[in-house]
Amino acid sequence: MNLDWSQIVPYIPFMLEGIWVTLQFVIVSIVFGFIIGTVLALFKIGSLKPLRLFADVYTSMFRGTPLILQLMIIYLAVPQLTGYDISPFLSAVLAFGLNSSAYVSEIIRAGISAVDKGQTEAAMALGVPYRQMMIDIILPQALKNILPALMNEFITLTKESAIVSTIGYLDLMRRGQVVGANLYRNFEPLLFVGLIYWGLVMVLSLLGKWVERRLSKGD
């Protein structure tokens, strides 16, 4: 095996910078996706049929098409239609955020449905407005139940973030490819990047288990 790990040593700081670059857009995307997903979840359980239909079509569209296709449409097709030269970072945030919101909406909807109906009936009997009931009573209980699932979505986004390397965004994956191209050696830098991804996922998985234990003790 023709391996020479010493050649990638000078490039290690460059690749390590990709950790923050990757997490930066992943965190923004998950926050954006959570906000949109919450709105969609409320549409799905609401009484207005047009909003329910919109949320169902939205979810079906983003869950039924590849994420890389959505990324390419935003990065390549939108500038063609609008004339606006969208940046790789904004393209990544929009694609991952919109895609994530479709999954998050289902997670939140399931969490709301799992809340005891007696909570809703009691709030309505006391004359609590619907909006206040959802914000102060239903959503806090739902979020407690779905935090592990949301953490899993965060982990999935972190792994899938490597897709943004296809649009030239200097994330962790792209930096590994750049180093490989400079050295004409791809195995070492890509394996190093793979170990970093694995480490990130392990840290997030441990964090998710810690959250689950905390929630179980809270019960």
TrEMBL record:
The lineage of its organism: Bacteria, Bacillati, Bacillota, Bacilli, Bacillales. It comes from Halolactibacillus halophilus. Belongs to the binding-protein-dependent transport system permease family. HisMQ subfamily. InterPro entries: AA_ABC_transptr_permease_3TM, ArtM/GltK/GlnP/TcyL/YhdX-like, MetI-like, MetI-like_sf. Pfam families: BPD_transp_1. Keywords: Amino-acid transport, Cell membrane, Membrane, Transmembrane, Transmembrane helix, Transport. This is Arginine ABC transporter permease. Residues 19-208 form the ABC transmembrane type-1 domain. It comes from the Bacteria. GO terms for biological process: amino acid transport. It is a multi-pass membrane protein. It is found in: Cell membrane. GO terms for molecular function: transmembrane transporter activity. The chain crosses the membrane at residues 20-43, 55-78, 190-211. CDD domains: TM_PBP2. GO terms for cellular component: ATP-binding cassette (ABC) transporter complex.
